[in-house]
Amino acid sequence: MKEIRMVDLHTQYLHIKADVDAAMQRVIDSTAFIKGKDVAQFQEELTSYMGAKHTIACGNGTDALQVAMMALELKPGDEVITTPFTFISTIEVIRLLGLKPLLVDVKEDTFNLDPSLLESAITKNTKAIVPVHLFGQCAHMEAILDIAKKHNLFVIEDNAQAIGANYLFPDGASQKAGTIGNIGTTSFFPSKNLGCFGDGGALFTNDDLLGEKLKALVNHGMKQRYYYDYVGVNSRLDTMQAAILRVKLKQLESYHQARQRAADYYDAALSGIEGLEVPVCSPFSTHVFHQYTIQVPAGSRDSLKVWLNEKGIPAMVYYPVPLHLQHAYDDIGYNTGDLPVAEKLSTRVLSLPMHTELEEEQLAYITDQIHAFFKS
Description:
- By secondary structure, the protein is of the alpha/beta class.
- The chain has 2 domains: 9-104 and 111-249, Type I PLP-dependent aspartate aminotransferase-like (Major domain) (Aspartate Aminotransferase, domain 2), CATH 3.40.640; 252-375, Alpha-Beta Complex (Aspartate Aminotransferase, domain 1), CATH 3.90.1150.
- It is 38% helix and 14% strand.
- The chain is built from 13 helices and 13 strands.
- Helix 2 (17-30) packs antiparallel against helix 9, helix 3 runs parallel beside helix 9 and helix 4 (61-71) packs across helix 5.
- The relative contact order is 0.17.
């Protein structure tokens, strides 16, 4: 059996090596390392895939979130609602821009923002909501959009973990995660479902004016060279990364299918273990399984992680401390017990290996070892 990896980017690369190597050589030969043709072509291809009107590539997913808030002209002191159970970028950019984060607890089954708690958090200073499509499936966007419309709030989707997931509306229509709110953001960090060989990110919008503004903001605020319309940033996707992403975008749907097959295997093999909960798939969203995250009784989670590691099986805790209890954010006004679901989940979640190259022999070994742990 091959070594089990949390993410097997090497084997994935070998399957597309000829195309990736050719794409990289094309960029080297062109010497157009910044704003080369592949960047514009990737933006066009991703726009088509996503069904958005505008795609603006940028340097990374964190920059994408910051630029989205800059484009909406959020001012210091404005409040932004988001989740405490996510990667730090989501709240980090709020603080860096002098905005005030308001954290709303998540749903225990899906890990995503709980819309039923939103309205009670809104004040006269609240300007935006940032739902995070965590682990590969959409937050409940319809409910979030209704509340945002009622209170005249912007919606910025943090779609770093769910690119390609479809939001399913009651009338049968569907829309890609990241294209539903005012602005969507994503990351192309190497381990993402659509990952490059370094840092990269993108923004999506269906608003023409916002599209033009976002395009300028990521390039120093320029619409025309050396004429600056906005205070911007330097956050460009380089040509090499765009060329690699063009190759991998063609594989994205097959990558999702591979992840879903692995998730189906996990679901079937792990069902019936007392106290262990497999991921719940929302009826309003497809799931692209950026992570396969189980819930283990709090007293057993860390022991199970050690057990698996000793058996050669990597497993990760995303996230061991919710954002409101991180020391860097002691001053935002939250205490232990304020967001009990996120706090509970941080003691129970464990993510198992999940990637496009998992083989049935590996999946059988992983799940057999989990059964063995609970029988020991």
